[in-house]
Amino acid sequence: MNRKTRMKRIYLDYNATTPICSAAINAMNECFAKGYLNPSSQHRSGQIARHVLEDDRDRMVRLLGARMGSSPDQLIFTSGGTEANNMALLGLVRPHRGPILISSVEHPSVLGAGEELRRRGFSVISIPANSDGIVSVDFIANQCESNAPPQLISVMLANNETGVLQPLDAIAALCAKHQIRLHTDATQMLGKLPVSFQDLNVSAMSFAAHKFHGPIGIGGLLVRHGLAIRPLIFGGSQQLEKRPGTESVALVAGMAAALADCLQRQDQWISDISELRNLLQQQLLETRLDVVINGHLAPRLPNTLNVAFPAIDRQALLLALDLVGVECSTGSACASGSSQPSSVLSAMGLSDQIISSSIRISLGSENTKADIDDAAERIIKCVNTLRQTKSLQKNTVSNSSRSENPL
Question: Which of the listed CATH numbers 1.20.1300.10, 3.40.640.10, 3.40.50.1370, 3.40.50.720 matches domain 22-264?
């Protein structure tokens, strides 16, 4: 058996997706084994499925810290974070009621929804961010106090590329003061740090199950009680006509089980994963390599490291790392394959050299200290090899030019 066969692959792309946990698998298998049918059917089998679905909806609402009782917050199940973000932005706005403010460091699904709003004639204003990726609260305050205050503001809780946390408490206070709707994308935050919908004081919050070890294909939009939201699709009465279509009892059960399991282990996970992330960061910084940690001065998710190796092409590094068994990314999985530079790093005002050489490393529950030590060694070797190759190519071109132009 050769070394490549024996080499352990190290997954460091947990911000893209997380492996489904056993709690979610067991919950879904139970649904499949019991053969739950269409929860919209009026017969007994349908009503049994409806009961299971609504029990899990209530469970999710409790876990998310949302309001229950006589006037509950509304949890709308979606296919994932992208649909939830689109539903929030396109469903909460109204014509002729002021501009929409969207932070410049949002996920592509939020930025894309903003572009669609522009096409529909809405005024969409980008909220600037500083070099650490934190949006300007002063800019938002000035917009709120202007003659044309915004009708909706969208700012994420935690960035998917850098892990930087946004000052949502200050933004929520401004929105409450000026009676402005506030949406937050909690997709990267949920499961990694504590989240309470009521404590956030936002109008709507989107999330996706596969970011906290749940199944792919299910997510949700939590909407504050009493707030009207328009649907994106039509043709059914499910979910109060806000999101028509037959609900998947199994996917919802898997999501609820995954979130419960994740939150139960969260405190210990935060401690363990912070230690591993900081260890990897330290190991990279202690080398003789030219290393830049993007967003390192800001509060960050405990598992995320966005690092640049100036003069090294990010795509070349990504491919080299994959060949030696280290799996990471150049940014958002929803923008993978794009030749365009990271919109997040661009919004931070970073140089082209830094942007073109940055990769995202995101750790998770299956990573160990041995993984981190091994990954650091492989990363350093790949960077050194690419630097040497680039230097050799540069010298070859230089020598060729001199030979073609003799004195």
Answer: 3.40.640.10
